[in-house]
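Example S7 (structure tokens).
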């Protein structure tokens, strides 16, 4: 399958264009909520929709993706918390390898099990170096992964981890402080990572206001992912989009 989504990420990065992705957790939406969120995303010119969560307990992933696809043309990318979170109705899959941890199951073990199903799905596969950063509070992702996050003040660890991920062939790097984090990834850590990798850098977790999203982009993030804050106040979508899309190109 053509690398349509990946190419768009790379092209936007090369042009210095910052992207906004809204994360939708299938456990927390119904048809009405999906329609409301999608309408807001269309009006705000959101670039990507991520679907998934650390602990998806419902069985309606296909239905959620289909409902989104039926109502908009925004690319839908799966952000899976486990190998079972696969829907062939999406456009692409972030194939996550937890490079910040030392749990072999999340580095390669679960991928071996899921590979045949992922291959058969027909999805565009985007290999992703996933880095969990300490967000100041226990998160679902840290509990499920059984792996310690990168300390929030250890920029050099994050930098070297991201560099290793890129050299191992990861197409993108995703830094995440987790859903409901008390603090987001610091701008100094984002800058340290961004300056030392050439692949697109995605940043999420703990970003609760447009100013923070803007500063993260200025520091070097190519894509900002926001989920929990929007679950609490969907009207933030427009403000976040305006902030992210207003970042001048080539600011690093």
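Recovered sequence:
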């Amino acid at each position: 399958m053509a690398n349509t989504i990946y190419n768009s990420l790379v092209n936007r990065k090369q042009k210095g264009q910052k992207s906004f992705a809204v994360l939708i957790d299938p456990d927390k939406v119904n048809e009405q909520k999906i329609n409301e969120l999608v309408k807001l995303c269309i009006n705000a010119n959101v670039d990507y929709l991520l679907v998934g969560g650390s602990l998806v307990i419902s069985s309606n992933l296909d239905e959620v993706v289909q409902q989104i696809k039926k109502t908009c043309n925004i690319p839908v990318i799966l952000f899976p918390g486990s190998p079972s979170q696969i829907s062939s109705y999406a456009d692409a899959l972030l194939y996550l390898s937890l490079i910040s941890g030392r749990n072999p199951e999340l580095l390669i073990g679960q991928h071996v099990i899921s590979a045949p199903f992922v291959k058969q799905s027909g999805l565009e596969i985007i290999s992703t170096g996933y880095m969990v950063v300490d967000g100041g509070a226990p998160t679902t992702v840290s509990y499920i992964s059984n792996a310690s996050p990168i300390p929030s003040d250890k920029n050099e660890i994050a930098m070297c981890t991201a560099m290793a991920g890129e050299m191992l062939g990861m197409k993108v790097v995703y830094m995440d402080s987790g859903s409901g984090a008390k603090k987001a990834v610091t701008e100094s850590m984002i800058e340290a990572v961004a300056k030392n990798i050439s692949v697109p850098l995605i940043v999420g977790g703990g970003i609760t206001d447009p100013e923070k999203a803007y500063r993260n982009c200025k520091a070097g993030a190519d894509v900002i992912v926001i989920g929990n804050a929007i679950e609490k106040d969907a009207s933030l979508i427009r403000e976040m989009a305006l902030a992210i899309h207003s970042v001048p190109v080539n600011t690093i």
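Notes on this example. The mean pLDDT is 93.
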